[in-house]
Description:
Layout: H1 2-34, E1 39-44, E2 51-59, E3 65-72, E4 99-108, E5 111-119, E6 124-133, E7 138-144, E8 151-158
Antiparallel strand pairs: 1-2, 1-8, 2-3, 3-4, 4-5, 5-6, 6-7, 7-8
Amino acid sequence: xxxxxxxxxxxxxxxxxLLALCLAGAAAASWAQDLTIAGTWKTIDDKTGxxxxxxxxxxxxxxxxxxxxxxxxxPGADPNRIxxxxxxxxxDQKIIGMQILHGLRPDGAQSxxxxxxxxxxxxxxxxxxxxxxxxxAELHMRGYIGIPLLGRTQTWVREP
Length: 160
């Protein structure tokens, strides 16, 4: 009889373990499916390797994504710095609070394209595409003129 009892306990433990694994797998699949570029990102200067700014990316009503500078991270930089090299409506506007990214749309698993990004340092606007990597912990943001081959990539790090 004790053999039957031990076998029953093993079966219950195995069943619970299998159920826990199934639930964990379902949760992971759901999380991966919902993974988007929406959130707060720390930009890393591709020339210096140092943090530059925090950008908040949000999904727009039309399904595209836009990003706004919410904080500068360069030590000693003027928090009221304006974009003197920008043109049009952005000329001489504060960089903090400025929308520098717009029009990105999903084009596959964890990749986005069709957007434009402004470099406030130069005042120039570039086409851009983005790819989530490392399970969504990092974002490779590529700005380019014409074709993606002619551009540069920055790594942005997701903030908690």
